[in-house]
Write a structure and sequence with these properties.
Blueprint: H1 5-22, H2 24-47, H3 56-88, H4 93-112, H5 116-119, H6 121-124, H7 130-174, H8 177-197, H9 203-225, H10 228-255, H11 268-281, H12 304-310, H13 314-333
Helix pairs in contact: 1-2, 2-7, 3-4, 3-7, 4-9, 7-8, 7-10, 8-9, 8-10, 10-13
């Protein structure tokens, strides 16, 4: 795990500010309730990849980036963006708040959270399979969400409900917002890995970044409404996002054909494994046993339309549709 001097300074400053605001006991409880589940989520995401699992050292580097640098840069640019929005909105507190939460925060946070996948060499060199981007993107999102949980737990929970309020806020966000950060940033990570591994145009990164921003913006918009029913459904949708990310990792891992030969780990065993498997990948297999997963894509026979719809998780899509319908009903009948 690589923690730079600047990150240590940020960690010390954040820790001292949290303790000064709520006391050591409250901070310790918030940290345990935030980072404990985040670690379990990360372990679950990592375990979804059966072959060539990502090393913990690189995962911790990505996690720390999200928890420290991602939060620090986002706080600065969210603050600057909020001030600019307030000025150009005619000094309207309510309008500036809504625009900052729904527009500025998603754009800023989804930009800074996965930057470590480009900036850190030890993380970037581990991205040799497409599913790796999902894993590292999720790690960044989990780190960011864990620190944000402490921030909101102290800012909202302690101020309004004392220690009990802090625990309530952090626990609720552990099953909702932290999974939102995991899911959204995993999309950006997926785009980055397709750019690095498959050599696709950089536009693929932009496309999945925009998708992450839209997911984040929709989530923040529902949070402003404050409906208990929408909160419950948001938690269920966030948990579904976790399972979707894990299932997508397993699918890509089973496909196996997205490994770049030049990116394989050095060593004779790995080179031999690649050479021995080339002949197997050179022919299309049409007979699938009970223990063999059918490939998600078979481009030789699929038309463009069928391949487009084949990439859709319909259960997740129906869940999002029901969520949006519930949101509209709440807007019109509340």
């Amino acid at each position: 795990m690589e923690i730079s001097r600047g990150q240590w300074i940020i960690i010390i400053l954040l820790t001292l500010s949290f303790i000064a605001a709520a006391g050591f006991i409250a901070f310790a409880i918030a940290a345990i309730l935030s980072f404990g589940p985040a670690y379990l989520y990360l372990k679950s995401i990592r375990s979804a990849e059966v072959t060539d699992r990502e090393p913990w050292s690189a995962l911790r580097t990505a996690f720390v980036w999200g928890a420290v640098s991602g939060v620090f840069y986002s706080m600065i640019f969210n603050g600057v963006g909020g001030i600019l929005v307030y000025i150009f909105s005619g000094n309207s507190d309510e309008l500036a708040f809504v625009i900052t939460v729904v527009v500025v925060a998603p754009v800023v946070e989804e930009f800074f959270k996965p930057l470590v996948l480009f900036r850190n060499v030890s993380v970037k060199e581990e991205i040799d399979e497409v599913e790796d981007g999902i894993v590292y993107g999720a790690a960044c999102g989990l780190g960011f969400g864990a620190t944000e949980n402490i921030l909101y737990g102290i800012d909202l929970g302690v101020v309004e409900g004392g220690l009990a309020g802090l625990i309530l806020v952090v626990v609720l966000r552990t099953f909702s917002s932290i999974l939102l950060h995991l899911t959204a940033t995993s999309f950006t990570g997926y785009g980055i890995s397709r750019y690095i591994v498959k050599g696709e145009p950089f536009g693929v990164v932009v496309k999945y970044y925009i998708l992450a921003v839209l997911i984040h913006a929709a989530w923040n918009a529902t949070a402003i409404l404050g409906s208990p029913l929408i909160l419950l459904f948001s938690i269920l949708l966030a948990i579904g996002g976790l399972e979707f990310s894990k299932r997508r990792i397993r699918e890509l891992d089973l496909e196996g054909s997205n490994i770049l030969p030049q990116s394989l780990r050095s060593g004779d065993n790995e080179r031999d494994r690649w050479n021995n498997s080339k002949s197997k990948w050179g022919e299309k297999t049409t007979n699938y046993g009970k223990s063999t997963a059918r490939p998600t894509y078979e481009s030789e026979t699929d038309s463009p339309a069928s391949s487009m719809f084949q990439d859709i998780d319909w259960r997740q899509a129906l869940g999002v549709g029901a969520f949006l319908l519930l949101l509209l009903l709440d807007l019109f009948f509340s």
